[in-house]
Amino acid sequence: MNLQTASAVISFAKSLEDESAKFYQDLSQRYAEDKDVFVSLATENKKNIVQIERAYYGVISDAIEGCFAFDIEPDAYKVETALAEGASYHDALGKAIELEEKIVKFYTDAAEQSKSLMADVPRAFMLIVKKRAKRGTELRSLLGKEG
Amino acid sequence: MILEEPIKGVPLVKNFIDGEWVESKGEIRDVVNPAKYEVIAKVPISTKDEIEAAVEAAKAAFPDWRRTTPLARVRCLFRLKELLEEHFEEVSRVQTQEHGKTIDESRGETRRGIENVEVACGIPTLMMGYNLEDIATGIDEYVIRQPLGVFGIIGPFNFPFMIPLWSAPYAVATGNCVVIKPSSEVPLSQMKIAELVDEAGFPPGVWNVVNGGRTVVNGMLDHPDIQGIAFVGSTPTARDVIYKRCGETGKRVLAQGGAKNFMVIMPDCNIRATILALMTSFFGNTGQRCLSGANLVIVGEDDEFYKSFMDAVVATTSKIVIGCGLDESVQMGPLHDKEKKAKVIRYIESGLQQGAKLRLDGRKKVKIVGDYPDTCFLGPTIFEDVTPDMKIGSEEIFGPVMSVMRAKNLDEAIEMCNSNLFGNAHAVFTSSGKTAREFQYRVTSGNVGINIGIVAPMAFFPFSGMKQSFFGILHTQGQEAVRFFTESKVVIQRWF
Predict the structure, then answer these.
(1) Average pLDDT for residues A22-49, to the nearest whole number?
(2) How much is the ipTM here?
(3) Residue to test with chain B: of A18, A68, A114, A120, most B Cβ within 10 A
């Protein structure tokens, strides 16, 4: 079923952030050479949740279209984050880039759908898009370094 | 995802009088979760003695409370605000459980309630008077605002958390004491607030809650120590009971009644955004709010625009997800009880009898997400070819029913709005500033929406209302609430 209410979309966004935080924690333990980068990405995910919740709980009101602001198909944004036991660092970075692209698309689509309806929520989503786009560049540079 | 219910077992609701939780001697009734149609609590219908005890406690607390500095008074409110934020999710879920609304709607209600506490925290500034030196040489004049004593606050069933907070924070911040009577159908939200009031450190007797019905209301209306009443409910009760009795007993009054709100659609509106706004307006809170859209007026003689707009409205409405409000996917919950559902069905039948065309019939088997009885559920209903003289076009239905009318032009649409007895919240959807201004200027409703389907004033603005939607002068919220709960005292002084 598509996600149409703000509550469902916020829960979905939180689950994406949680999943990606776990993924980066996992990477930080597997690949010691860039441990700090992955730990900071996982930490940032937790901050993203705070940012989203603050925007949602701060502006939710009966005057706006909280139950009708979205039409998100969750399967379109899900990424399999489990890495195979012997996955190479190259594979892991590739998976991370794929994850970032999917999540950027989710936030962009959700912001676009709700921008005239949900006040601060789409703005919070777009701030995360910016952060995530920056991470994509960072991950690509690690991938380039790795060769 | 289905969220966990905060109310477990079947607690017996108590009264909160003089800082104590007191068991009532009155008759006990059920509090029902309408989605599951199960009893979630028991509520007392308190006696005359119990309302009198609460008023006595409030009266006794008043002299010390009014002498407490405004800064110290609002520190209690700041603590209450923090506690409400800490319990935000819990109190929101309580509302859904006892009322049936969706979790997004409950969270919205919680936020709106807290905003009133926040605004009332500004009382040291909001309550200031004014002065002028030398009204005659050597003589100064100034105005001070003083609290009056004890106020009664009577809440409705449709916003169990928020509506008493339109008044209570301002009343206590200005130095008054309150006795709140929540709707006996939904008492749990106010009990939760009272628990937090207790924890916030308000002195005993400043904030009292007495559960019940008519006996409690009459006890407030007749009590000589109650200085005023803030009421929200139906128009007959607001007008014929509250306003009338307050006039007879010399009490201040603000009484908010029912509504029949018109949503006027101009052909130049943003169609997608307008339709989504209409979904919230007509079907949000299952149509059980005084700001809900009731009549949809489509302006112009362009049949093609009318047809395509209505096709889109019907298509979007048909997809509304119905179920228990604690399921995050749900967009519309049940009506609050089966009697209210039966009343809405009677209106639908009257629409058919009077010749309106039923485009979407909410009485048909409703598809409910999850395994819930359909006792209180009713699907969204759309009527076309409605005229303002039909019952469904003129009376408040308080359910998910959209009555669609057509008007040749804006003048005719405004005339339709203004000829209705109610005047709560009409709105226009347009991309023309000129049209919007004309509408705002001429329409006789206390709240006006421009591309907004639910015209809910923020806490720092008054919740207005006109004609049969409001009885009184000053309104709830913001500066007007401060004025309602205070008396202006003028001092003229000179020194020899």
Answers:
(1) 92
(2) 0.90
(3) A68
The amino acid at residue B362 is: G
What number does CATH give the domain A6-146?
1.20.1260
- pLDDT tens-digit series, residues B7-60: 999 999 999 999 999 999 999 999 999 999 999 999 999 999 999 999 999 999
- Say which CATH architecture domain B15-257+469-493 belongs to: 3-Layer(aba) Sandwich (3.40)
DSSP letter string, B27-51: EEEEEEETTTTEEEEEEEE--HHHH
Confidence at A146, pLDDT banded by 50, 70, 90: low
Facing residue for A11 by CB, picked from B1, B88, B270:
B1
> B330 to chain A, minimum CA–CA distance in Å?
7
Mutation for testing the B interface, residue in A12, A61, A116, A117 having most B CBs under 10 Å: A61
Rounded CA separation A83/A88 (Å): 9
Q: May I ask the CATH class of domain B261-450?
A: alpha beta
Contact assignment for A68 to B280 by CB distance below 8 Å? yes
- Only one residue has tokens 């970075």, namely A93
For chain B, domain boundaries: 15-257+469-493, 261-450
Tell me which chain B residue has its CA closest to the CA of residue A2.
B329
Instruction: Please state, in angstroms and rounded to a whole number, the distance separating the CA atoms of residues A66 and B107.
Output: 10
Residues of B annotated as catalytic are: 290
